[in-house]
Design a protein that fits this description.
This protein is an alpha/beta fold and 330 residues long. The chain has a single domain, classed as Bacterial extracellular solute-binding protein, family 7 (D-Maltodextrin-Binding Protein, domain 2), CATH 3.40.190.170. It contains twelve helices and ten strands. Strands 1, 2, 3, 4, 7, 8, 9 and 10 form an eight-stranded mixed sheet that branches. A two-stranded parallel sheet has the order 5-6. Helix 6 links the parallel strand 5 and strand 6. Helix 2 runs antiparallel to helix 10, helix 4 packs across helix 12 and helix 5 packs across helix 12. The longest helix is centred in the last third of the chain and has 33 residues.
């Protein structure tokens, strides 16, 4: 009887003892792009990988369409820990790390292969810029999110020669893009992507500047006649995480995040460039598509050499090192 009582008591104690669950880390992600955007899909794939590989210890919660923070607020929100992670246009870091704008220098990349090599994980350029952003903002870059390449849009006649921008009011989305327009005698007008359609429709600007994929997603072919595929600069976003959050993770979970980041970075870059080509093919009967010849690209490159010089002058040693890294990847 005594043994039965002890056994029953032990069983009761065990039944009342809570089972320790695995420690979970939920990574909230702020994204200004809509839920159906390819970048949102990119985040979801990342979330699926880290949850599966970590056995549920890592989870991700996506907040698209700027539910939490606007694009310009992401660096500060992530850095302060107001949110664990997010995506931001890479130009948003130019205030803290001016050298980040190196990828926006027009025609700095000779072709797609050069661009891919220069911005690949572990490249000389990435080592410089990723480290600088971490140091200045407490944002750890997990991966770069390819968004596309720059194009010019207009009505009446296409943008073909550098002189075609002279005297024109041009929509821009960053500092270097503004310098580019100024160098060609145009008037830059900084404008968010969401305001483009109405601006073109109301003729608030004469020329548009945006990624090729935007032709379809924002239906710009409804208000513009020509698109010139200059592909003169890269449009990149970055997926960032608060460094304090990252450093508190186990080595195993850090490795899971790092590996997942490499996987989804490559998939997005491949998908975006294929998507660009597919969009152009799809809308070519709705908007006239213009490709630059090698001779025309050379003319643009020569006309815009001053932008590169201005970049080096304003960004100092770090900017010069970033520029050398890009050119070294040719």
């Amino acid at each position: 009887m005594k043994h039965w009582i002890l056994g029953a008591t032990s069983a009761a104690v065990l039944a009342m003892t809570p089972i320790l669950a695995k420690a979970e880390t939920t990574i909230r992600v702020t994204l200004q792009l809509p839920d159906k955007h390819i970048v949102a899909d990119n985040w979801r794939e990342f979330g699926k990988i880290i949850e599966e590989k970590s056995g549920g210890e890592l989870k991700m919660q996506l907040f698209p369409s700027a539910q939490l923070f606007k694009d310009k607020e992401v660096p500060g929100a992530v850095g302060s820990g107001a949110v664990e992670a997010g995506s931001a246009f890479i130009g948003r870091y130019a205030g803290s790390v001016p050298a980040i704008d190196v990828i926006s220098i027009p025609f700095i990349f000779q072709n797609e292969a050069h661009l891919r090599k220069a911005v690949a994980p572990g490249s000389s350029l990435r080592k410089i810029l990723d480290a600088a952003i971490l140091k200045e903002t407490n944002n750890r870059i997990m991966w770069w999110q390819a968004y596309g390449r720059n194009t010019y849009l207009t009505n009446g006649s296409p943008i073909v020669k550098p002189s075609d921008l002279k005297g024109k009011k041009v929509r821009t989305y960053g500092k270097i893009q503004g310098w580019t327009v100024e160098a060609l005698g145009g008037a830059p007008t900084l404008m968010s992507g969401s305001k483009q359609f109405l601006a073109y429709q109301q003729k608030a600007v004469d020329v548009g500047m945006t990624g090729a994929a935007t032709l379809k997603s924002r239906k710009l072919y409804e208000v513009l006649e020509y698109v010139t595929l200059t592909n003169d600069s890269a449009i990149e976003f970055v997926a960032v995480i608060n460094n304090d959050v990252y450093m508190k993770l186990s080595d195993k979970n850090k490795a899971i995040i790092d590996e997942a980041a490499k996987i989804v970075e490559k998939k997005l870059r491949d998908a975006v460039y294929d998507h660009e080509k597919a969009v152009v093919e799809e809308v070519k009967d709705k908007i006239k598509v213009v490709h630059l010849t090698d001779a025309q690209r050379a003319e643009w490159t020569n006309a815009l050499k001053g932008v590169e010089d201005r970049f080096v002058k304003e960004t100092g040693e770090t900017g010069a090192a970033a520029l050398a890294a890009v050119k070294g990847a040719m």
